[in-house]
């Protein structure tokens, strides 16, 4: 994997019953806040931010696999199911309700 410049995951989606949504890598580090009550867009954006490190990790793993196959001279490739599952899990995290 390449050196990343962002805070690695997992990130958290924290929402109190009568308070704002807080998003960040831990309970004591918030990088985004949506006011209370949040709109649908704000909630969806918060979940996407939380899933971003997982999306990045899955995309990077798939990229590394494709580069490896290309360097080996393969003209076609199959992406291993575990890499596709990681991408699907990130997607589910972003769109959880």
Care to describe what's here?
Helix content is 47%, strand content 11%. The chain has 97 residues and is mainly alpha-helical. It has a three-stranded antiparallel beta sheet, covered by helices on one side. A hairpin with a 7-residue loop joins strand 2 (21-24) and strand 3 (32-34). It is elongated and about 55 Å long.
| Share of helix, binned | 40-55%
How many E-type strands? Answer: 3
Give the count of helical stretches: 2
What is the H-and-E element order? EEEHH
Structural class: mainly alpha
Q: Uncertain segments of ≥5 residues (pLDDT<50)?
A: none
Average of the residue pLDDT scores: 84
Largest sheet: 3 strands, antiparallel
Report the span from N to C terminus: 31 Å
Entry keywords:
elongated, mainly alpha, 97 residues
Short description:
The protein has 2 helices and 3 strands; from the N terminus they run βββαα.
Secondary-structure blueprint of this entry?
Elements: E1 12-15, E2 21-24, E3 32-34, H1 40-71, H2 81-94
Antiparallel strand pairs: 1-2, 2-3
């Amino acid at each position: 994997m390449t050196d990343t410049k962002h805070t690695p995951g997992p990130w958290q989606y924290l929402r109190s019953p009568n308070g704002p949504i807080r998003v960040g890598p831990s309970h004591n580090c918030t990088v985004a806040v949506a006011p209370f009550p949040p709109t649908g867009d704000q909630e969806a954006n918060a979940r996407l931010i939380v899933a971003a490190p997982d999306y990045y990790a899955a995309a990077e793993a798939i990229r590394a696999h494709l580069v490896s196959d290309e360097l080996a001279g393969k003209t076609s490739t199959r992406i291993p199911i575990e890499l596709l599952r990681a991408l699907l899990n990130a997607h589910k995290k972003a769109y959880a309700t």
